[in-house]
Amino acid sequence: MSLIVVAKKEFVDQIRSKRFIAILAVMLLFSIFSFYQGVNEFMKDYQSFVSGKVQRPSITKIFRTFGDMGVTTFGSILGLFMGFDLISREKETGSLKTLLSHPVYRDQIINGKAIGGFAALFLVVALTLTIALGTLTMRGFVPSFEDLIIIGKFGAVTVVFLFIFFSIGLFTSAIMKDSGTSLLAAFGIFITIMAVIPIFSSVIADAILGSPPDPTVFTLSGDSEEVSNKTMVEERKKFIKEVEEYWKKRRTIIDSFKILSPANNYVEIVSSLDLSKTSPVRGKDVTKNFVSFIIPPLAFFTLSYVSFLRLEIR
C-alpha cells in the first residue's frame, strides 16, 4: 500500500507542477499543428488510394512531424524536468528524512516515484493520441483495427522514449546534492546523447578513414593518351569499388554511433511500425535499435535505484 500511496502522490504532484503544465501545453499545441499537417497529407494519399492510383498509405504518416520534432524535442525536455529534482528536492527541504521516518521502505519510495512519473508520461501520450484520433475523425476517416494497433505501438514507443529522459533526471537527482547541480548534470547527459555523439560520429569516421577517394586521380589517368580504353575501364571499376567501400565503411562507423542516440532509435522504430504487406519498411530489421532503445531507461533507473538505496540521509 505504501508503494501505491507514493505513486499516487508523485502522479498528482507531477500533473499539478507549473513546469509540467507549461511544457505539456507547448507540446500539445505543437501536436495540434503537426497532426493537422500529417492528417492532411495522409488524407490526400488515402483519397488517391480510394481512386486506385496508389497503395494504401500508412497511418504512421500522421505522426511523422510530431515524432521527429515534437517528441524528440519537447518530450525529452519534459522527461528531464519531471525527474531532475524528485529526490534532490526532498534532500534540500529535509522532507526525505521525514518520509523515511514513516513505515515506508526506500525501494517503495524510488519505485513509487518511478511509477507515478511513468503514469504522468502515459497521460501526456494519451492526450496527444486523442488529438490525433480526433483530427482523423473530423476529417471523416475511421481507423481500422490494424491502424489502431499501429497507433497503440506508436504510443508505447513514445512513452518509453519519454521515460528514458525521466530516468536520466531521476538518476542525477539521486546522486547530486542539490536540484541545480542535478539539472546541469541531466542536461549534460542530454546534450551528449542527443547532439555530441551524432555530430562526433562523422568526425571520428573522418579520423579513421580519412578523405574519400580523389576523383581527380582517375580523371587525370583517363585523360592521358597513353592509357588504353581497356585500362580506363579497369581503372574506372577500381575507382568505383574504392568509393563504394569507403562510403560503406563510413556508414558503418556512423551507424555504430547513431545506435547510441535514443532519438535515432526512436525514429527508426516508429518508421518500422507499418504492418501493411506492401510497405517498403515492413522487412526492416530494427532489432539493434530496439535493444539500444530499451537499455538506457533500464540502466539509468537501476543506477538511480542503487544510488538511492545507498544514499546517506543527514
Spell out the helices and strands N to C: HHHHHHHHHHHH
Which geometry do the CA atoms define? Answer: flat
Report low-confidence residues grouped into runs of 5 or more: 277-282
Main sheet properties: none
- Would you tell me the overall average pLDDT? 84
Approximately how much beta-strand content do the residues carry?
A: under 5%
What's the number of structural domains?
A: 1
Number of strands: 0
Helix count equals 12
The helix content is over 70%
Please identify the structural class as seen in this structure. Answer: mainly alpha
Topology summary:
Blueprint: H1 2-16, H2 18-50, H3 64-83, H4 88-93, H5 95-100, H6 106-138, H7 145-175, H8 179-209, H9 215-223, H10 229-258, H11 262-271, H12 287-309
Short description:
With 314 residues, this protein is mainly α. It has helices at residues 2-16, 18-50, 64-83, 88-93, 95-100, 106-138, 145-175, 179-209, 215-223, 229-258, 262-271, 287-309.
